[in-house]
Amino acid sequence: MGTRKMFKKIILAFKFSPACRSALEKAIQLSIFNDAELFIFHALDYRLKGKDETDAELIELNQQMDHKFETEIKPLIEDFPKFKFGSSPSDPALEICRIAHQIQADLILLGCHDEPEKPRLARLDYVGVTILEKAPCPVILVPP
């Protein structure tokens, strides 16, 4: 009898920050161990949400995020082929929960943020708290 993998689809709520890079490392480890798909999602400025896909500002912002991902993050995960990166203008917490529900995710990973005045403590911001409240699956908080 083979071992049953616990997670098949994992979502990482991603900002290009040191806290999220720690969470990315853990997401990759969990994805490899479970042979799971890894969805990396970055929320763009929610004020652009109403813009048409052909809007020049939105196109440029998407191109910048794709380039940033390709140059800064993809080299870290090229050996792991089961990942997808996406970004869109949205409320980060609500979009992560919507995607998790849509793809029937088994797990959401969040990076905790450092408090500059208390470097040994980690904290959640509004986005993290909202994801914890509304997530349709378990959430793991990854310290920096």
Structural overview:
The protein is of the alpha/beta class and 144 residues long. It has one domain: 3-Layer(aba) Sandwich (Rossmann fold). It has 4 helices and 7 strands; from the N terminus they run βαβαβαβββαβ. It has a 5-stranded parallel sheet with strand order 3-2-1-4-7, with helices on both faces. The protein has a two-stranded antiparallel ribbon with strand order 5-6. α1 links the parallel β1 and β2. α3 runs parallel beside α4. It starts with 8 loop residues before the first strand and ends with a strand. The model has no long low-confidence stretch (mean pLDDT 85).
Largest sheet: 5 strands, parallel
> What is the CATH architecture annotation?
3-Layer(aba) Sandwich
**Coarse morphology:** globular
Unreliable runs, pLDDT <50, ≥5 residues? none
The helix count comes to 4
Summarize the helix and strand pattern as letters.
EHEHEHEEEHE
CATH topology: Rossmann fold
Instruction: Quickly count the domains.
Output: 1
Radius of gyration: 15 Å
CATH classification, class level: Alpha Beta
For the structure shown, list the relevant keywords:
4 helices; Rossmann fold; two-stranded antiparallel sheet; 7 strands; alpha/beta; globular; 42% helix; 144 residues; 5-stranded parallel β-sheet
Strands, helices and their partners?
Layout: E1 9-13, H1 18-34, E2 37-44, H2 56-77, E3 83-89, H3 92-103, E4 107-111, E5 113-115, E6 118-123, H4 126-134, E7 139-142
Parallel strand pairs: 1-2, 1-4, 2-3, 4-7
Antiparallel strand pairs: 5-6
